[in-house]
Amino acid sequence: MSRLVRVRHLGLVSYSAGLAAQRAALSAHQAALAAGGPAPHELLLLEHRPVYTVGRRQQGADTAAEEARLRRLGAEFERTGRGGLITFHGPGQLVAYPMLNLRQLGVPGPRRYVCLLEQAIIDVCGRLGVSAATSPHTGVWVGDNKVCALGIHLTQRVLTSHGLALNCSVDLDWFRHIVPCGIADKFVTSLTAELGRPVAVAEAAPLVAEALAARLGCRLVWEDGDRPASDVSAAQPITAE
Asked: Boundaries of each BPL/LPL catalytic domain copy (predicted)?
């Protein structure tokens, strides 16, 4: 089974463009499986234009008024197929959509997969000098503040889409207009806020890709010109447990 993951860096795109890229990757994987050939894994790295998204657990009649209020702030509003509640995506936030076949990678199920994603982000935070951890709530946390949100979807129980959003230098004021992920007594933070220096998406992106590959036991293949340059010269190597 293939353990190669093609990494594509899409830049700053709309949420709908990110969804289209995920659908294309999923269709390519399903077509390859149907043809009996090697099915490609992909990792999409990108930033979204300002958008509030709600997951499957928060899609009822009450979201219409919320949508109108949030759109007035200048952001888009999208109902999604991922798990979880409301969150924000915008410039300065690294979004990673792993498009993987969990069966081919030997990952036993969604809980283990989410755990691997969380551990990969903890690895990245540690490499940058931020002490992060998991909590009873999904995601990666620095104290009581979430630095990385997770929301996944599985097709046919094994094909992944959606993924994670790591706050690098995103404007945290966008989150003050919502209860992020439905957790009223917590807030969010960013790598920039924790380190007291700018942390660009381009700095974090290769670290996230490398950490995911280490945790999942994969090998990365970057599309030509798609690997952002990281200037973390003093970082320690990431190793999977």
From this structure: 37-220
The CA angle 173-175-177, to the nearest 5 degrees, is 90
DSSP, collapsed to helix, strand or coil, labels residue 77 as strand
Per residue in 127-140, pLDDT (tens digit) is 999 999 999 999 99
- Which residue among 125, 148, 168, 181 is the active-site one? 181
Helix or strand (DSSP H, E) at 63: helix 63-71
The dihedral region occupied by 156, where left means phi > 0, alpha psi between -120 and 50, and beta the remainder, is left
From the list 165, 159, 123, 127, the residue with the least C-alpha distance to 146 is 165
Of 224, 54, 81, 72, which Cα lies nearest the Cα of 162? 81
Convert the pLDDT of each residue in 140-182 to its tens digit.
999 999 999 999 999 988 999 999 999 999 999 999 999 877 7
Complete domains list, the chain, with CATH: 4-222 (3.30.930.10)
Q: How do beta strands 51-54 and 76-79 pair?
A: parallel
**Selection from 55, 75, 63, 86 nearest residue 171 by Cα:** 75
Q: What angle do CA 43, 47, 51 make, to 5 degrees?
A: 120
Is 88 assigned a ligand-binding role in the annotation?
yes
Confirm whether residue 87 is marked as ligand binding. Answer: yes
Is residue 85 annotated as involved in ligand binding?
yes
Q: Reply yes or no on whether 181 is catalytic.
A: yes
